[in-house]
Fold these 2 entries.
Entry 1:
Amino acid sequence: MENYLKDFDIPAKHAPEEAQLRWRNAVGIVKNRRRRFRHIVDLAKRNEQKLKVQKIQEDLRLVVTTIKAAYKFIEALKPSKEAIDAGYNINPDKIAKIIRSRNNKVLEEHQGVSGVAAELNVSLDEGVETTDLPKRQKFLGVNRYTEKPSKSFWLFVWEALHDLTLIILIVCAVVSIGVGLATEGLPKGIYDGLGIILSIFLVVMVTAISDYNQSLQFKDLDKEKKKISVHVTRDGTRQKVSIFDLVVGDVVHLSIGDQVPADGLFISGYSLLIDESSLSGESEPVNINEKNPFLLAGTKVQDGSGKMLVTTVGMRTEWGKLMETLSEGGEDETPLQVKLNGVATIIGKIGLIFAVLTFSVLTVRFLVEKAIHHEFTSWTSVDAMKLLNYFATAVTIIVVAVPEGLPLAVTLSLAFAMKKLMNDKALVRHLSACETMGSATCICTDKTGTLTTNHMVVDKIWVCGKPEEMKDGENHNTNHSDVSENVLPFLLQAIFQNTASEVVKNKDGKTSVLGTPTESALVEYGLLLGGDFDAQRREIKMLKVEPFNSVKKTMSVLVALPDGRTRAFCKGASEIVLGMCDKVIDYNGETVDLSEEFVQNITDVINGFACDALRTICLAFKDTDNNCDGIGLPDSSYTLIAVVGIKDPVRPGVKDAVRTCLAAGITVRMVTGDNINTAKAIAKECGILTEGGLAIEGPDFRNKSPDELMAIVPHIQVMARSLPLDKHKLVTNLRSIHKEVVAVTGDGTNDAPALHEADIGLAMGIAGTEVAKENADVIILDDNFSTIVNVAKWGRAVYINIQKFVQFQLTVNIVALMINFISACISGSAPLTAVQLLWVNLIMDTLGALALATEPAHEGLMNRPPVGRGVSFITRAMWRNIAGQSIYQMVVLFVFNFAGKQILGLNGSDATIIVNTFIFNTFVFCQVFNEINSRDIEKINIFRGMFSSWIFIGVMLATVIFQVIIVEFLGAFASTVPLSWQLWLLSILIGFVGMPIAVVLKCIPVERRVPKHHDGYDRLATGPEAV
C-alpha cells in the first residue's frame, strides 16, 4: 500500500506548502469535508492571514509619520469624567497612540515616564495597589485579546449532518416512507424509512458528542498554551502574575527571553535590546533606553534587563489586533493524519466500486427476473421499494467502506494523549510533536534543572588560598572567621553587585531571593556571611551591566564606589574567568601576582570541585580609572577573589528514566555549558556516560572536520562548555547525516535555533524563556527528564493505538463489503440492511476509535525499539491479522448465508429473516471480540491493562447492550426478529472463536528485522512483556 501513498507523505515539521497542497488534491472520496478537515489548517485562510499580518506590520511602520501628522487629534483625546474622578488624568487611547507613534515630543509634554505614572496614579517604586485592580480594568482596559468564539454542541451536530452519504440516505428514507404509506399505510409503511432516520440520528449524535468532547480538550490545552507569567511590583513587593491579570500602571520586570506583555515605557535597566520582528517584520533589534523608551506588546527581550511601566493593554495594542487575526488559523496536519487520509482515499475508492457493483448486480438480477416472468412492462410500488432498498444498501456500503474515522482517530488519540500529558506536566504545543516523539531515537538534554533538581546551594568555596566546605547544606551556620575580614568586603561586593537577583520580602516579612538558581545560591551564601544586600546596593551606584549569556559565559558590571573610584566585577565559568585574571587577593586583602604554579593549583581546585559534580564559578574584580564609556567592560587584568562550588543534586528517578530510554533504543546525550569534569560526573551518576562513550568540549567539537564528525558523533554522550550553536550543529548532524529522529531540550533564547531544527523541540517550563517556549513543540512544565521519557511513551502509545484501530477497521471493512457483494451476486439479496450497516459503521468508526485510539500508555511500550523513518505504517503483522480474521469471519458468515436454514434447522415463512438476524448478530459479535484481539498486534496476552481502560470497557458494554436492544426490541426498524437463547449463545461462541484464531495467527512468523540496541548488540525480550 505504501506505493500508493507517495502523495500522502509530508515531514512532521516545516512542511512545504507544495506537499500540503499535493495531498489535499490527492484526497478523492470524502463523505464530509467539514468534519474530515476540521483539524487541518485551511491554506487559503492562512495565506489571507499572512496578508493581514503584513498589512498590520506595514501600518505599524507607517504609524510614526501618520500619527505625528495627526498631533492635534492626539491632543483632542481627553479622559472621561468617570476616569478623572477615579484618579486617571490621561485617556487610554491617547497614551496608546503616543506609544505606537514613539512620539518623544508628546511624551515630554507629559513630563516623561514619571509624568505619565502620575497621570495614571501609580508610584514607580511601589507599583499598583492590589485594591485598585478592578477600577483600573474598568477604566483603562483588561489585558485580553478578542478570540474566536467556541463552537456550540449543535454546530457539531450540524457539521455531522453534512455527510453526503447520510444526506442521500435521508432522502431515500423520506421516499421510502412516502411509498410505504401509499402502499402499506400506517404504521407498517414507515418502519423501513423511520429505521434509517433513527439510525442516522444515532450516528450523528454519537459523532457530535465525540467531536464536541475533543473540542473541549483542545480548548483546555489552548488555554494552557497561552499562560505566560511575568514579574511585577505591586504593593511595594515583587510578585509573579499572569499576563492576563496585568493592568495599566503595573511595573513589569523584563529579562532576556521574556515577551513584552503589554505596551509601555522604559523606567530603568541595562543594555535592553528588543526584537520587534514578530510585530513590525523588521529583523534589526532595537535599543531601549531613556531616549527611546517605547516598548510594544508581543516583542521579545533579546538582551539585557529592565523595568517598564504598562501604559496600554489588550485590544488597544497592535499585538492584540494581530492576535485577533491569528486566532482564525488552524493546526498543521500531522504525518499520520495525512497518511491515513491516503489510506481512507484508497479504501473509499475500492468501496465505491463495490457499492456500484452491488447495486448493479442487484438491479440487473431484479430486471432479469422480471423479464423471465414476463413482468417487465408491469411495475408496482413494491418494485420501486425494492430498487430503493437496493440503492440505500449500496449507499450504506459506501458509508461503511469509506473509513472517514481513520484520520479523525489520529486527532482523537492525540487529544487524549495531550490531555494525559498535561496532567503529567507536559504541554504539547503542536499535535505532530506528540506523534513524532514516539519515533525519537535520540534525546539531547540539558543538565541543569532537567537532570538535576535546579535547587542550588554553595557547597564548597576556595578563598584566601584554601578551600572551605559548607556544613549541613543550606542550613549551615557560616563562621565569619572562615573568610578573612579583609577579604569579606570584596567577596560581598562581588556577590551583591554583580547579580541580576533581588532580595525581596513578602507581606509576612519573610525574605526570599528572586533570580536564577545559580545567582540565588550565591546571594543566599552572601546573606549567610552576614551581608546586607539592600545596604550594598544603596551605597554603590551601578554604571554599566553586561548580563550573562550562554556565549560569553560571564556576567560583568561596572560600579561607582562611595569614595569616587570605579570598579568592575566579573563572574562566570571558572576557567574563562581565571584566564582573565593576573592577580589574586590574599588573606590580608592584598593583591598578589598569579604565578603559573598558583594558576595550576587553582585549576586543580576547580577540577576537584568539578569531579565532585559541583558547578564552579569564579568571582573577580578590577579597579578602573574611567567609566568605560563607549567601550565594553574590561576582559583582562582582573583580580581573583574566590572559586565557588555550587551543588545541584541529580533528580530522583533520572537514573531509572535514562535506563528506560536505553532499553527503548533511545540514546541520551547531555549537552551543557558546564565544566567537562562536572558534566562527566553528573553523566556517570545518571547512567548517560557509559564505557566507550565520548565526552567532548564545545570548542573541540566545533573545530572538527566533517569526516571527523562523521566518525565521532554517534559516540558522543556528553558535550561540555558548549555554545547554543554547538547544540544546533550536533542536532543538524544527527538528523541529516545519521538519520536520527532527534528530541532536544532548551531553556535559553539562544537555544531557539536548535529547538526549531530538531524533530521535537522540548522547552523547559520553569527555567525556559518565552522565546524558547515559542520555538518548542512541547513544554516540560516541571523541567524533569522523567517527564520527557513520559512524552516518548505517550508518543509510542498514539502510533500503536492508531495501528490497532486501523487493523480493526480494515477487518470490518473487508468482511462487510465482501458479505454484501458476494451475497448480492449469488443470491440476489444483501443479508445486511442499510440500518444494520449504519450500526456496524458506528461500531467500527466512532466507537472503535473511542475504544482503541484512547488506550492508555503502559511501560511495555518502552521495551521495543522506536519506529524508524519511512517504515510502513500498516505492518506485515497487521496484514496477517487482518487476512486471518477476515477469512474466518467470511467463511462462517457465507456458510450461514447460503446454508443457514439447514444448519440451524429452520423452516417456515420467518426462516429467512431469522437467518439474516443471526448473521447480523454473529457479525457484530465477531467485531466485539476482534476489537479485544486488536488491543495488541503481536502479543498473545491481549487482556493486560484492559480492565484499567474504562473507556474500552464502556464501549464494549455499550455495544453489547445496544445490540441486544436492536435485535430484541427494534426489529420493526432494523429488520430483525428476537432470537432464541441458543442462537444468542451460538453468535457469541462464533465471535469468541476469533480469539483462539488470533493466538494461532500471532504464532505465524512474519519477516521482520531484529532490532539492535543503541550500542549495537541484540536486545532480547524478557519478562511478561515478551508474551
Entry 2:
Amino acid sequence: MDFSRGQPGDQEGGPGPGLPGGLLWEQIEPPSHHFSPEERALLYEEALYTILHRLGQPEPNHVTEASELLRYLQEAFHMGPEEHQQLLQKVQKLEKPIFCLKATVKQAKGILGKDVSGFSDPYCLLGIEQGVGAPGGSPGSRHRQKAVVRHTIPEEQTHRTQVITQTLNPVWEETFILEFEDISNSSFHLDMWDLDTVESVRQKLGELTDLHGLRRIFKEARKDKGQDDFLGNVVLRLQDLRCQEDQWYPLEPCTETYPDRGQCHLQFQLIHKRRATTASRSQPSYTVHLHLLQQLVSHEVTQHQAGSTSWDGSLSPQAATILFLHATQKDLSDFHQSLAQWLAYSRLYQSLEFPSSCLLHPITSIEYQWIQGRLKAEQQEELAASFRNLLAYGLSLIRRFRSVFPLSVPDSPARLQSLLRVLVQMCKMKAFRELCPDSAPLPRLVTEALRTGTVEWFHLKQQHHQPMVQGMLQAGKALLSLVQDIVGDLHQCQRTWNKIFQNALKVNLFSVAFLELQWLVAKRVQDHTAAVAGSAVSPEVGESLFQLYVSLKELCQLAPVPAERDGVLALDGFHRWFQPAVPSWLQKTYSVALARVQRAVQMDELVPLGELTKHSTSAVDLSTCFAQISHTARQLDWPDPEEAFMITVKFVEDTCRLALVYCSLIKTRARELSAGQKDQGQAANMLCVVVNDMEQLRLVIGKLPTQLAWEALEQRVGAVLEQGQLQNTLHAQLQGALAGLGHEIRTGVRTLAEQLEVGIAKHIQKLVTVKESVLPEDAILPLMKFLEVKLCYMNANLVQENFNSLLTLLWTHTLTVLVEVAASQRSCPLASSRLKIALQNLEISFYAEGCGLPPEALHTATFQALQKDLELQAASSRELIQKYFCSRIQQQAEAASEELGAVTVKVSYRASEQKLRVELLSASSLLPLDSNGSSDPFVQLTLEPRHEFPELAPRETQKHKKDLHPLFDETFEFLVPAEPCRKDGACLLLTVLDHDTLGADDLEGEAFLPLRSVPGLTGTEEPGEVPQTRLPLTYPAPNGDPILQLLESRKGDREAQVFVRLRRQRAKQASQHAPKPGR
C-alpha cells in the first residue's frame, strides 16, 4: 500500500464508495451487489426450488406458508407477476432433488452394561425404513422387534458405527447420509448393540467382579455363541423432524425388563443431493448462498430506508426462513455460512447504509472456526480481497469522517465507534494476518487517512469560503470564517472524536488534525497580513484583522502539549504579523466607546432606573462601554510583556479620558434639561441623578485593575520594566481619574447642600424669635420637619455614599449656624435652651439609628464645644453659680502645690443635731503681704453657694499678728439640714485674708471643701474620730472664668451681678499678690 499526501478525494456526502486517503485499490474494488437479469433469474430459480422442495417441520420463528415466502421472493427480486409465474412453472417441472437425512451419531450415556465386567462394547446400526409411516400411525406403536434394523432395512441401506469397547458412555461423532424418497412414510431407525465376542470361561471368570457378573456368565452360557446383546433403539418419523435437530433421545427397550436404557445424542439435517437448478449445477454451494444472501439483505436494507428507518441487522422472518432452508438443503457448514455472510455484508456495507456492527458476528464466527488451508485458493483470494476492500472503504470513511459522521446526526459517534471496532477486530483476525501479511498496522493507516482527510477538508472549506468579489476586506472575512470553522472543528475533535479514536486505536486525532491545520492556517494568515501591511488599512479591514487575531489566539490555546508534538509550531509568535494593526485597533476601541457615550448621554432623561437603582440609563451604557473595553483588552492579551504594558497604559488612559468626558457631557445634559424647568425640585432631582451617575462611574473605574488583570501583567513585565514603573504609571493614571471624579462628585453634592443650607439657617434663626410661651420642644418642630422632608428626599434620590457626603456637609454647616446664633443669644437662657434641644434632636436625626453619620463624624470639636456652651447658656444663674463651685472644687482636688500656703481643718456632720462642725486648726506657709515681710491672717468661713444656705452668715476666726503659720484652733458650728449639703457644688469656702487697718483686707488664698465628702454626710452613721484635712490655698483663674462671663452678661439678674462682683474682687486681689516664679 502506498502512503502519500494526495489531493482532496471524494466530495462531501453520504458514505458512498470512495478511495481512502493514500490507498491505491484499482484491483480490489468490490463487485457491485446488483446482478444482471440472467444472474437474477438463475438466483430466483434457486430460491424457488428451495421453497418448493422444503423438508421437515418449520423452525419456531420461521414462516410456515410457502405462499408467503413466494410473495416475499417476488418483492425481493422485483419480479413481475408474469415473470414470476413463468419461472415458478419452470422450477416445478425440474427434477426433484435426492432427499437425504444427514444423521450424526454423537454419543450415548447411561447405557446398560451387558458384559461380565459391568460394561458394554456398544455400536449402532441405523437406516431409514420407507413405506411404513402412514399418517396417524407411529412406529413406536408397533410390536418392538429385537433386530429392528436388521429385519426391516435392507443390508445395503444399513449403516454401522464403530465399536467402542468397555464403556457405558460411548462417543462416536460419526456422520451418515441416508437417502429417502418420501418423507411422509419414512422413519429413521437406530439400534444400539453390545458386541459379544467368543471368550473362554477362564477369561470371563477373570473379569468377574461381583455376583451380578456371575449371573451374566450363566446367562451367557445359555446364549448362542457370538450373539450380540440389544441395548436399545431410537425410532423417529422423518416428517416429525425439523430441518435441523440436535438433541438427546431415550433408548427404547424391546421388553420392559430394563425400561431405562440410557440416552443417545443425535444430530439430524434434512439435505438435498443433485439439485436440478442451473446455479447448483454450475457454482459452488457457498457462492450461490452468498449471492442469495446478498440479494435478500439488499432488499431488507432498501425496505428500511424506504420507511426512513435504519436496518439493525435483523432479517425478516421470510428472509431468515429462505436463507436457513437454502443453507440446510445445500449442507453448508457454519464456517461457510459465516464466510458467505461476511462477503455479502462487507460488500453491501460499501454501497448501502446499515450499521457496521452487523459485520462483527461473521468476523467472530470466522475467527472462531478458522483453520489454515480450509479454503481453496480462489476462496482465500476472495476473502483476502474482501478484507482489503473493507479496509480501504473504512479508511475512506475515516478520511471523510467529518461529513460521513456529522455531529448533527445524534448516532454519528456511535456509528464511527462501531466502524473502528469492526476494522480493529478484522485486522486482529488470524485469517487477515495470513491472507494480508503485507498490510500496514491499522493505527498507522488510520493516522495517515486522518492526516490526508484533514488536508482535504481544509481545502474544501477554503473553497467554500472563497469570496465572490476579490478584495482585501473580502479576503480577510473569508480567512476569518475559515479559521473559525477550523477552531470549531478542533473543538469537536477534542470533545468528541478524539476519545473515540484514542480508545479504539490509541490514535490522537486531535494532535494529528491540529498539527496539519496549523501549518495550513499559518501560511495563509501570514500571506494575508503581509498583503494588508502593504496598503492603507480601513476600519473594516482593521476590525477583520482583529477578529482574525482573536480567532488565532483561540486556535493556539488548543495546541497540544509539547510532548505530543515535534518542534515548534508554525503559529508560534503569530502576534508579530498583526503588530502594525495594533494602533488602529486601540484607536477604534476608543472611538467606538466615545460615540456610544455621547449617544447614551444625549438620550438620557436623567431619571433613576428604579427605587434600588438610582443612576440613569447613560451610567449603564457607560458601564457597558468600559466592560467592552476590558473585554477587548482581554481578547488582545498581547504576548510581548513590554508591548503589553504599553497597550494597557493606552487602555487605562482612554478609559480615564472617557470618564472625564462623560462627566462634562452629563453636566451639560443636566443644564439643558433643567433650563426650561420652573420647578426647582425637578432640577434637584436631575442633579441627584448626575451625582449618582458619577458615583457609579467611580465604582466602575475602580474595578479597572481587576478587569485589566494588572496583577498578572505586573508578574509578566517584572523582568523588563523598572521596579515601580507599573505602579507609577497605571496607578497614577487611575488615581488621577478617581480624584477628578471625586472632585466632580463633591461639587455636585456641595451644590445640593447649598440648596438646603439656606432653609436650615432660616429655621434655626426662627428658633430664637418664637414667643416665650412656646415650649422648646414645640419651637424646634418646623426645623425638624424641614430636615425630615429634605433628607428623606435626598436619601431616596442619592446613593448611600453621596448621601453620606451630603449629610457631612449639612452637619458642618448646621453646627456653624448654631454656633453663630448661640453666640448672639448668650444672655438669653430661653433661647439657649431651645438651641440646646435643637442640637440634641439634630444629632439624633443625622445619626438616624445608625443609617446616617457615625458618632465619630457627628462629635466633632465644634460640636463638643457648642454642646458645652449651650449647656451653660441654657442654665439659670443659680445653676451657673453651682457649676462655678463645682469647677472650683475640681480645681481644689487637682491642686498639688502649696505655694500660696495651706489650711488644716477637721469637719464633720451630726445628722441627729443637723449640725456641721468645723474645727479650724491652723494655716501654714502664707504669703507675706505686709510691708514688714509678714501678714496678719484670719480666715472667713462661708457655706456656698449662698442661695442654698441663705440663713447662714459668714464666720471669722481671730486675727493673728505677724504670723505666716498661725494656729487658730477654733471651732464653728453651722445649723444646716443634710439635703443641701449633699448637692453638687455645695462646699465650705475658707478664705484666708491679711487684715489691713487702714484699707481693704488682702487675699492670701481660698480653699474649697466639698460638703458631700464630710464624715456624717457620706453615710447614715454618726462620725467617730474625724480626720484632719489639709487644703492648699488657690487663686481664681487669672483669665476669667467663662461661667462668670456668662453671669456678668445677665445684667438684669441682681443675684448674678452680686456674685460676679465678689468673685471679680477676689480675682483682682489675687492678681495683685500673685507669687513670683521660683518662690
